[in-house]
Design a protein that fits this description.
The chain is an alpha+beta fold and 448 residues long. The protein has four domains: 27-132, SH3 type barrels; 142-217, SH3 type barrels (Roll); 225-314, SH3 Domains (SH3 type barrels); 331-446, endopeptidase domain like (from Nostoc punctiforme) (endopeptidase fold (from Nostoc punctiforme), Alpha-Beta Complex). Helix content is 30%, strand content 33%. It has nine helices and 29 strands. It has helices at residues 2-28, 93-102, 106-138, 201-211, 291-314, 331-339, 359-368, 378-381, 435-439; strands at 31-35, 40-43, 52-56, 61-68, 71-76, 79-84, 88-90, 142-146, 150-153, 162-166, 171-178, 181-186, 189-194, 198-200, 225-229, 233-237, 246-251, 255-262, 265-270, 273-278, 282-283, 351-352, 356-357, 386-388, 398-401, 407-413, 416-420, 427-431, 441-446. The strands form eight sheets. Strands 24-29-25-26-27-28 form a six-stranded antiparallel sheet. The radius of gyration is 45 Å and the shape is rod-shaped. Mean pLDDT is 76; it is low at 25-29, 94-119, 126-136, 213-220, 289-302 and 311-329.
Amino acid sequence: MKGKINIKSILIVTALLLIIMLFINISLAANTGVINAQTVNVRETADAESKILKQLPINQEVEVLETEGDWYKIKCENVTGYVRKDLVTVNNENQTQNNETNTQNTNVENTNAENTNTAQNNTQNNSTNNNATLTEANSELGDYVVNSDTKLKLVPTINATDVIALKKDEKVKVTEIINGWACVEFNTSKGWIRKDKLQREEQKQEEQQVQEQPVEQQTEKPTTKIKYINVGTVNVRKEPNSSSEIVANASLNDEVEVESETDGWSKVKVNNKEGYIASSLLSDNKQETSRSMTTSRKSTTKKEQTKSEVASSTTQNKSQSTVSNSGSGTGSSIVATAKKYLGYKYVYGGSSPSTGFDCSGFTSYVYKQHGISLNRTAAGQYSNGVSVSRANLQPGDLVMFGSPINHVAIYIGGGQIIHASTPSTGVRIDSLNSGYYSKNYTGARRII
């Protein structure tokens, strides 16, 4: 009896050992698979945002270690990481399932069969979905053109190592697209580039064909009008306002192309530069000039420019003030006050002895000392007081020059004027009957 028990025990132990060995063999028989897409990323964890450990080419064989959600844990060339399931075709998955099924008892076989059928159906559905996704993705693959200078990256991240530099209009071939990145081939190099840096080659060719159309088939450019600078020096502004950046300068009688006019500003092209000039500083015809005018008035007219710009940008073309009837000064006292400031410096926009004067700032300041208010600009002062002929000028009268008016002075008698002339001369006395002042005399106003 004892001998029989020992034999039976031995048989049971032997059977258990065989079963254990069978499970060990099954567990050791790891699945293998093949990469089914171009340049697949092996990631550190089962997460599309995790670190990329390696990139595998299509048809690369891998060892499938386990499943984690939508990911396979794989091993290839001593690198272990995760790859999306849809990017790997597993070779012996069905065989493993059959081996596991064979180790179950008969009562479980039916359940396993049902589960197997469900799994197969799911696999087929996944395969169908994956094929649809791949078909849609494949429609975006092909030949592209780089639309701006950029760098080819080793992996699809902004901070990745640069492979090579790509120039605008380089032709590349897109082999894969993931999360806004395109895997491209260029000559013998391969790497990643943002998809928005690419343009379909056929689309680029269509654009070039449009650009190469005959001139008569393209949209005609708006017609321009030729005008001329009517003051000594003009600033060409980047935007249509007097505080905008100065992009160029133009001088008296320079020719400009006027493209359009809006709110007192003209969009122009002058000396191959584009910008804006106050419309009041432009005329249809050139101004009469003389050598003395050219040398002595260029700087002086600069101050009038911004006054015109400000007037244009604010559309204040009306007179800003009227002459006070209570002024107590006389012509001789006006002249005497003006002569106190002979030699004072010329400063564009200046209107006091402490800062310096420009032409209208000087006349305004002198008259203000006698209780009389004048408009601030030379053109504006032409509306102050009453008109007086050149033949009837008296000391203290205002005299204006230019068309449109761009300079003002005080008549002091004897055919002479006192005015804030230029930055190089400041406040000085000149002859009314010579050079610029004689030829460009516009009119006079009696204020007192």
